[in-house]
Amino acid sequence: MGASETLLLPEMLDIWQLTLGWQPTDEQQGLFQQFYEGILEGNQRLNLTRITEPMDFWEKHLWDSLRGFWTQESGFVAATPTSLIQNLKGNSEIQPQSLKLIDIGTGAGFPGIPVAIAFPHHSVTLLDSTRKKITFLEALITQLGIQNVTTLVGRAESLTHQLQHRQTYDIALLRAVAPASVCAEYALPLLKTGGLAILYRGHWTDEETESLKSILEKLGGGIEFIEEFTTPISKSVRHCIYLRSSAPLKELPLKK
Ligand SMILES: C[S@@+](CC[C@H](N)C(=O)[O-])C[C@H]1O[C@@H](n2cnc3c(N)ncnc32)[C@H](O)[C@@H]1O
């Protein structure tokens, strides 16, 4: 592995500290590096990502994945994502110590694997409808030795009808999966009451906010807030949309 493929240069650690108030431990840095190398290797066989340069990978995959756990509004620091839940929720209905997360449409493991590495006390389910991606991820997770990740092959819309997944998760992560209203439709039925769906988006428009209204009303949820931010290196504008599940589901049938 040449120097150009070393992922975490000291300046990236500084940027993490400056932007998120957090830095990975040596062990986490090693895991991020192994994860990166695993993706590069898998990319030779599977179409996993076009973002392969170290700096790009760091910013657009790793930093971006973790940015969803850090919000300016709550003053939250990403090292303790439980604060996010507590700050936003304002009560302790969700157990703060070990949250259940689901990454819907994880692809090559984003944002779920960086989140799992950064926050090993939470359990992360990686869901994708493409079996070969999940097979690849299973091998990579074993290679990394991370214990807090499980995988599922399936479609989100079918999971929403299954008792073992319905209203089971504290946080759902969705990046580059579907239009916002479809993401809400996938995520809300899987969340416990009070759980959060985090939609990682590029541009965001008022029309998209409007497009969420009917599905939020139907499934019981609301927009907690919308956060706009700029990425630290390429200075792209991105958004995270935080949706809160607010009511038990009435309208979706369950399947055994
Ligand atoms: C563009 S990729 C994004 C992957 C990753 N979230 C990221 O940001 O790099 C979208 C992924 O979502 C998966 N996907 C799309 N619709 C899905 C659904 N209804 N249920 C589960 N996975 C889905 C696809 O197989 C694909 O791997």
- Which consecutive residue ranges, at least 5 long each, have pLDDT under 50? 75-84, 86-96
The CATH class, by name, is: Alpha Beta
Over the alpha carbons, how many angstroms does the gyration radius reach?
Answer: 17 Å
Query: What fraction of the residues are assigned to beta strands by DSSP?
Result: 15-25%
> What is bound: which ligands?
S-adenosylmethionine
Number of strands: 7
Q: What is the fold named in CATH at topology level?
A: Rossmann fold
Can you tell me the CATH architecture? Answer: 3-Layer(aba) Sandwich
Q: List the secondary-structure elements in sequence, H or E.
A: HHHHEHEHEHEHEHEE
Number of helices, counting only DSSP H or I runs of 4 residues or more: 9
Give a short account of the largest sheet. Answer: 7 strands, mixed
Outline type: globular
Total of domains: 1
What is the share of helical residues?
25-40%
